[in-house]
Write a structure and sequence with these properties.
It is a single chain. The chain is mostly beta strands. The chain has no helices and 12 strands. Strands 1-2-3-6-5 form a 5-stranded mixed β-barrel. The protein is globular. It starts with 5 loop residues before the first strand and ends with a strand.
């Protein structure tokens, strides 16, 4: 499963600069939302998937995912190779996880209650008309219940085929 190797860092983009020696690459500096001090840098290359091909700019809130199996330089601030980037609204959260037959994320992190307005697509934007059960999903949501697992009606679900 993809999600077991991916780590998410969510925060505000502070700076975007071209990567030295890589005409298709950018170095993005992010200030994490989670209370960590300092910044984190992400290398974005032509292989990085940016959901909806959104143009990134300083001040945006974004979630960036990196693969823990890839080598990382031991420098400060930390620098990761971004595999997946998505732009988030102010109070929005995102979760990349495997969801079982009951649409509960691995580890019981989140349970989905799909609504009529929930947009369900593939990563390339095509409508997804099959079952969501037993799939890797990128789920966009705002509010959750206080139950275990927390439940939400997501705004959007992207199936990672």
């Amino acid at each position: 499963m993809l999600s077991e190797y991916y780590v998410q860092v969510t925060g505000i983009i502070l700076r975007i600069v071209p990567m030295e020696g890589n005409c298709c690459g950018y170095l993005v500096t992010l200030r994490p939302d989670d209370g960590r001090r300092g910044t984190v840098q992400f290398a974005l290359t032509g292989e990085t998937v940016v959901v909806d091909m959104r143009r990134l700019y300083p001040g945006m809130r974004a979630a960036m995912f990196y693969d823990t199996r890839l080598p990382m330089p031991l420098i400060y601030p930390p620098r990761y190779q971004a595999q997946l980037v998505t732009v988030l609204n102010r109070e929005e959260q995102v979760l990349l996880a495997y969801f079982d037959t009951n649409l509960v994320a691995a580890g019981g992190k989140l349970a989905l209650n799909l609504g009529r307005n929930t947009r369900i697509t593939t990563l390339n934007g095509q409508e997804f008309r099959c079952e969501l059960a037993d799939q890797e999903l990128l789920v966009y949501y705002t509010a959750t219940t206080r139950s275990l697992p927390p439940q939400t009606t997501p705004r959007r679900v992207i199936v990672i085929c």
